[in-house]
Amino acid sequence: MTASQPLLVEPGARWRSLVWGPALCLAGGVLEAVRGLPVHVLGWVGAAVLLTAVTSLQVLGARRHSTVELTTNHLRQGAEVLELASVAEVLAADPDGRASWQMARALGETPTVPRRRTGIGLRLRDGRTVQAWARDDEALRAALVATVPGPRT
Length: 153
Fold this sequence. Notes:
By secondary structure, the protein is an alpha+beta fold.
C-alpha cells in the first residue's frame, strides 16, 4: 500500500478515557477528607490502578476494532482494509432502515456495524454489497462520494 493522504480518521476510542478512573478515585479520597473520615489511600490508589488497567484494555480493543481511516487509496474499518479502486458506488442512505444494503456484511471483523456507528452501503466492482460504518456517517459518506468514481444513487 502506498502512502496516501488521510481524508477522514475516526479513532475507535481516545486515550484520554484513562483519566476518568483516577479522577473519580481522587474525588472519592477528597470527599472522605472533607467529611472528616479516614482517607483510604491504598484503597483509592488500588481502585485507580484497576480502573486504568481495565479502561486501557477497552481503549486498545476499540482502537483495533472500530477505528475508521479513509485515505485517497483505501478505507480501513478496524483491521480490514478495502481498496477504494474496488468500490463501484456509494449507495443511497435510507432513514427508514429498509434498504437492501443494510442487511449486507459490515466491513471489519465485527459481525455487524459496531454500536453507536451508522452503516453506509457500498457496492463493490465484483457485485457484492458491504456496509462501511462510522460515528460521523455523514462525513464518511461525503468523503466517499467525493473519492469514489462511479454512479451515485
